[in-house]
Structures are given as C-alpha cells and as structure tokens.
Amino acid sequence: MLQNNITVGVVGSGAMGAGIAQVAAVAGHPVVLFDSNATALEKAKNNLTATLQKLQEKGKIGNAAEIIGRFSFAADMNAFKDCGLIIEAIVEKLDVKKTVFSELEKIVAADCVLATNTSSLSVTSIAAACTKADRVIGLHFFNPAPLMALVEIIPAVQTEPSLIPLAKALMLQWGKAPVITKDTPGFIVNRVARPFYGEAIRIYEEGIADIATIDWALTTLGGFRMGPFTLTDYIGHDVNYVVTETVFSSFFFDPRYKPSFSQKRLLEAGWLGRKTGRGFYNYAEGAIMPEPNKDAALGQQIVDRVVAMLINEAVEALHLNIASAADLELAMTKGVNYPKGLLQWCDELGAEEVLDTLDQLYNDYHEDRYRASVLLRKAVNEKKKFL
Ligand SMILES: NC(=O)c1ccc[n+]([C@@H]2O[C@H](COP(=O)([O-])OP(=O)(O)OC[C@H]3O[C@@H](n4cnc5c(N)ncnc54)[C@H](O)[C@@H]3O)[C@@H](O)[C@H]2O)c1
C-alpha cells in the first residue's frame, strides 16, 4: 500500500488536480490525469508542459521532458486500473464525488488507496460510497498545490488506521508538510482561520474602523501578509463566503462562525473581488484606494480582538483533539502563512491577556460568539503554556 513507485491517478484536471498531478510527477511517480471535460484536460496538458518547462529554465527541477513523460492524459477512468493511489479533485458536490468513488472501486485493485481533496465535505460521507471504505482518506492540498507545503491528512471514520502513517510518509516524500486532522468541518485551516475574516468584517460593520484601516492594522501591526479585505477580494467572495456559510451550517449554526451580510451582499451583487474588478475595494482603472487611519491605539485594538479570536479557535481545536499542538501550528503557518503559530502567539502574549480580551468582549456583547475555550481558562488558572 502506498509504495514509493506507485502510479498516481488524479481525477479532475482543474486548478487543484493539475497542481497535485504536477507534485506527484515531480516526486517521480507515473501519473494518470483524467477529466470528464476534454477541453479542461487539454488545457491542463498545455499548462503543465509550459509550467514544467519554465521550472527547468529557472533551475527548480531537473529534466522537464522526463517529468512530462511520466504523465498519461486519460480519456476515461479505466486508465486508473494500475494505480496505487488516486486523488480526486473534481467539483465540490457530494453526490458527484460519491458516484466517482463508487465507479473507481469497480476499476482499481483492492489495495488502491482512494483519496479526496475536498475542502468542505465530510470524508466519511464520501467513503460511505465505497464497499471497501477503509481505503478512503482525505488529502487536502492548498492552492497552488506545487507551492503550498501544507497537506491536511483526514482519516474518515472508516479509514484503516495503518494508512495514516503511510499517507504521511508519502506526503513527506513529496516535499510536503503533512498534518493529521479529524474529519470535522473545515478540518484545521478553514476552521481556525474563520475569525480572520469574520471578526474583521464585524469590526467594519460596527463602524469601529473602515476596511483600509483594518487591513493596515492586521498587516503592519499584526504581521499578516494580507489584510482580510484584500485577501477575501483576492480569494473571491464566491469561494470565501461559501466556505464560511458551509462551516457555519456544518457546525449546527454555532454563532462563532456566523456569516456576514456585508459579504453576502457582495456576492449577490456579483462583486466577487479582484476577478470582477470590484469587491470590498474597487479595482477599476483610476479608482482611488481608500487611505487607512494609522491611529496606533485603534490599530492595536483591532489586532488584539482578531488575534484573540483566532487564538481561541486554535485552543478550542486543541481542546477537542482536532489536531495536535504541533500540527495546529504547522497548519496555520504553512497553509495560510500566518506570521507565527497561534499557540505560540498565545504563549508570547500570555494566556491571561488573551482571555481578558475575550472576556471583555463577552461581557460587552453577551454573545456566545465570544465565549472563551475552557482550555484557555485552564491554561490561565494553571499558569500553563501551550508549547
Ligand atoms: N481551488 C481551491 O483553492 C481549492 C483548495 C483546496 C481544495 N479544493 C477542492 O479541490 C476540488 C477541485 O477544486 P478546483 O478548484 O480544482 O476545481 P476546478 O473547477 O478548477 O476543477 C474541477 C475539475 O473537475 C472536473 N470534473 C468535474 N466533475 C468531474 C467528474 N465527474 N469526473 C471527472 N472530472 C470532473 C471539471 O471538468 C474540472 O476540470 C474541490 O473539491 C475543491 O473543494 C479547492
């Protein structure tokens, strides 16, 4: 199972599938890439050839022609017959994924591992489509897959436990930074990162500060690479809002993950961000970008509030055994490039200060959204650090 020389199959040749196929081929595997849309497959073939050529010119990979030679571009799924691992990266729809998984099972050998790159669906429910569900696992890559090191490994309820270390070893061999996470909504990154967007939008909606000021505070004072408004405009509100809504409903409507009307309206207006020329910001030619209010005290208040909410999410994830402390830190630094891990951030600020910020918010608002994790309270009472 999952030997170094296995042939890797990838279903779906879109942004993620093509990227994952590239990573596997560069790591030395023969790769079979299939897409139900012939035009998409042709496009992926051309892009992969051009990308690998460029990487060779820059000295980042060896012989591009040799790596390209490892690919076969398949017109139907029977080409997956000899694969030892298949990674599915098709449209994010449970019924379509389930159909593909049950079709794959009719083609592949009994020891072929079937992985899904789903961002938001339950791996357990995808595995349930298979007769041999213990061979199914989640391998969640980040976009762009060749550049982003993080891979979240998500065992389903049915997954054979011995598959987990094998998947981890293979991802390490591919040069990735694997973390292991429970099959719960958003896994690690898409769960723990929610307040970066949600709390920033809440601060904006309350009129505490405008978008340019919040972005300025979180980048300049907070050390984040991009502010939440610039970032969601970049990701696209169609993608980011849908993740928020999915996480919110998947958590049985926990108010901590409540989506915002500001972002919903952007989506309804078709103001999806950079790709449509308008989102929170206006990217039209000649449009004037708003200037931040560089008030240090206001900026710090924004950073303290957003960072306390992020730390609380990470601590709660640790409390619920979603992942180990080390994996939580790796996920947030490698998956969303946070300046440091959130548990380290908590240790540096002091759990007491973080708890004070949260309790102050809770006292002011009387909203469940601001409830502090019991593990944070315990860390304060027992004067413990997380790392
Ligand atoms: N885009 C991201 O940032 C990102 C990050 C991590 C995970 N994901 C997940 O990866 C998956 C793919 O996302 P994407 O952004 O690459 O999508 P995409 O739309 O770029 O590509 C999906 C591809 O799958 C093909 N496809 C659809 N149904 C198929 C079927 N039944 N059989 C074969 N091919 C089929 C489509 O033709 C398309 O080429 C989704 O599950 C998504 O949630 C996306």
**Rg on CA atoms, Å:** 22 Å
Lateral strand order in the biggest sheet: 3-2-1-4-5-6-7-8
The total strand number stands at: 8
* Shape category: globular
Structure, described:
- The longest helix is centred in the last third of the chain and has 24 residues, at 296-319.
- This protein folds into two domains: 8-180, 3-Layer(aba) Sandwich (Rossmann fold); 191-381, N-(1-d-carboxylethyl)-l-norvaline Dehydrogenase, domain 2.
- Helix content is 49%, strand content 9%.
- The protein is built from 17 helices and eight strands.
- It has 387 residues and is α/β, with parallel strands linked by helices.
- Helix 8 (194-205) packs antiparallel against helix 13 and helix 13 (296-319) packs across helix 16.
- The mean pLDDT is 97.
- Bound molecules: nicotinamide-adenine-dinucleotide.
- The site of nicotinamide-adenine-dinucleotide (NAD) has 23 residues, from helix 1 and helix 4.
- Nicotinamide-adenine-dinucleotide (NAD) binds next to helix 1 and helix 4.
